[in-house]
Design brief:
The complex is a heterodimer of chains A (248) and B (253).
Chain A lengths: L1 H18 L6 H16 L3 H22 L8 H41 L2 H8 L3 H38 L5 H9 L5 H26 L5 H31 L1
Helix pairs in contact in A: 1-6, 2-6, 3-4, 3-6, 4-6, 4-7, 4-8, 4-9, 6-8, 8-9
Chain B lengths: L1 E10 L2 E11 L4 E5 L6 H9 L6 E6 L2 E2 L5 H8 L2 E4 L11 H12 L4 H14 L15 H13 L5 E5 L7 H18 L2 E5 L3 H7 L2 E6 L2 E6 L1 H4 L5 H9 L1 H12 L1
Parallel strand pairs in B: 3-8, 3-9, 6-7, 7-8
Antiparallel strand pairs in B: 1-2, 1-4, 4-5, 9-10
Helix pairs in contact in B: 3-4, 3-5, 4-5, 5-6, 6-7
The chains are: A mainly alpha (248), B alpha/beta (253).
């Protein structure tokens, strides 16, 4: 099992080397990049916003329930919500959700291209299929991830504001005071960095699994499941490593 | 000329190709025939460089694809066109975009020149009205025509076809065969076709290579195949539906 893990890791490394080979023509890669920005980024924005809105509301309710001591100021709820959303929920939870949605999409589409010989067709033409199909996806995902993150953070904080005000957990004034109190801008940079690393995995790991599918549609489905599991594991592992390295 | 020397390929303990030697004739339709599992597809994919052979050399006009730098190999690839068994058209792109893709990557033509070249190729395969359609909107025969148009758009020296008649009705198969043969002669290409269709062998097989158990067992022309006394050829010819039908018709007379 350990041997297999390192063999897979080696294969993933070789795949990335193929992906990052010099493009045959930048203009064609640029076109693919904008298509991927639309498919992987813009189209996921509404979902990320909705998920984050409700995530923020739930965090506010749960924090309010746990901070019901009359000696603790109510604006502490907003501080706790802000730290949870900025540090963990927006980058990690959104990345885990995207690993499922975007990851299965990438793995399925590349896997389908593999079994219908479209990848072989590119190779025979003299185009590097790994580069042409995967590099624009990685770049699009990595560059668009900070925008998704900002949307997610804003959605989460707005969700918390609405839940606090609507359910009478804390007043809008208290919430806004809590959001501003002892705010550390470094946390945003930390989250952007984490999200960028996760975005790289969300694009590259499912591409790797889709690219080496052998067989038919059943194997494509199997590869998509494996791709999502591997991406989630990579995100969880690197979340721990990065948190330990940066915040410790 | 494409020269294949001592080609070997195994998958696990299954020896699929066993030392094949052949010179594929320039400017002609070269057909690789054989029963399922005889090694036709592996041989074609090895020639194309999609499969790495265990042993042997494949020379394109004396150039060995396996020993070239990546950039040089890419130049040789631009001299190749390939028609895949399932056409392998890019489903998210229109027919025009499919045919234009090699031009976008490897030429510095203007947009108008590309459009004209794509129109010419689509007209050549008589499918010019489908330029703005998507592959899913076309029949199997039309998809094959688009695949041929895409394969010839860069004026290749070598055209490869993997089972071009697979999934087509007999009439459409004849049309596709005739189209491939016409294009081969018109542009002086070296065409390599992998097939098990005896109709194709008899119609366009200017140079036929029979594989059995991963070995080359016979080489000749379509005129010679029906008169060959090699037991493997006789067996293959009489296993084909065409000859069964001929035999039945003759015995009924």
């Amino acid at each position: 099992m350990i041997y297999r893990f390192f063999a897979e890791l080696g294969a993933y490394w070789l795949f990335l080397r193929q992906v990052f080979r010099r493009p045959e023509r930048f203009a064609e890669y640029r076109k693919a990049f904008w298509r991927d920005v639309d498919a992987l980024g813009v189209k996921t924005l509404p979902l990320v916003a909705i998920i984050s809105l409700f995530m923020g509301a739930v965090v506010t309710i749960q924090t309010a329930l746990n901070l019901d001591d009359p000696l603790i100021p109510r604006y502490y709820i907003a501080i706790a919500v802000r730290e949870s959303i900025l540090l963990e929920f927006a980058p990690t939870i959104v990345s885990l959700i995207l690993a499922g949605i975007v990851g299965s999409n990438i793995s399925g589409s590349i896997g389908n291209m593999r079994i219908t010989e479209q990848i072989d067709a590119l190779e025979v033409m003299g185009i590097n299929p790994a580069g042409f199909l995967v590099l624009p996806k990685i770049v699009a995902n990595v560059l668009f991830s900070p925008i998704l993150l900002i949307f997610s953070m804003a959605g989460g904080l707005v969700g918390g504001y609405l839940a606090g005000w609507w359910l009478g957990l804390l007043s809008p004034g208290e919430y806004l005071l809590g959001l501003r109190l002892e705010f550390q801008p470094f946390y945003i940079a930390y989250s952007v960095f984490k999200m960028t690393v996760f975005a790289f995995f969300i694009a590259s790991v499912p591409s790797f699994f889709g690219y080496r599918v052998k067989g038919g549609p059943l194997e494509v489905g199997h590869a998509s499941t494996q791709a999502v599991i591997a991406t989630i594991l990579a995100i969880i592992l690197f979340n721990y490593i990065l948190t330990n390295l940066i915040l410790q | 000329m494409i020269s294949v020397r001592n080609l070997h390929k195994s998958f696990g303990d299954q020896h699929v190709l066993r030392g094949i030697d052949v010179d594929l004739k320039p400017g002609k339709c070269n057909l690789i025939i054989g029963l399922s599992g005889s090694g036709k597809t592996v041989m074609l994919k090895s020639i194309l460089g999609l499969i790495q052979p265990d042993e042997g050399t494949i020379l394109y006009d004396g150039r060995n694809l396996r020993q070239m730098e990546h950039s040089d190999a890419r130049k040789v690839r631009q001299e190749m066109g390939m028609v895949f068994q399932g056409s392998a058209l890019f489903t998210s792109q229109s027919i025009e975009e499919n045919v234009r893709l090699p031009l976008d990557f490897f030429t510095s033509m203007s947009a108008a020149e590309k459009k004209e070249r794509v129109r010419f190729c689509l007209e050549r395969v008589r499918i010019e009205n489908a330029a703005h359609k998507y592959p899913a909107e076309l029949s199997g025969g039309m998809q094959k025509r688009v695949a041929i148009a895409r394969a010839i758009v860069l004026n290749p020296k070598y055209l490869f076809c993997d089972e071009p008649n697979s999934g087509l009705d007999p009439e459409t198969s004849l049309v596709i065969d005739a189209l491939i043969q016409d294009i081969t002669h018109e542009y002086g290409m070296t065409t390599v076709i992998n097939t098990h269709d005896m109709n194709s062998v008899l119609e366009i097989g200017e140079h036929v290579l029979l594989l059995k158990g991963g070995e080359k067992v016979w080489e000749g022309t379509n005129d010679e195949i029906l008169e060959a006394e090699n037991p493997a050829v006789v067996d293959y010819v009489f296993r084909s539906n065409l000859m069964k039908r001929v035999r039945t018709a003759l015995s009924g007379q």
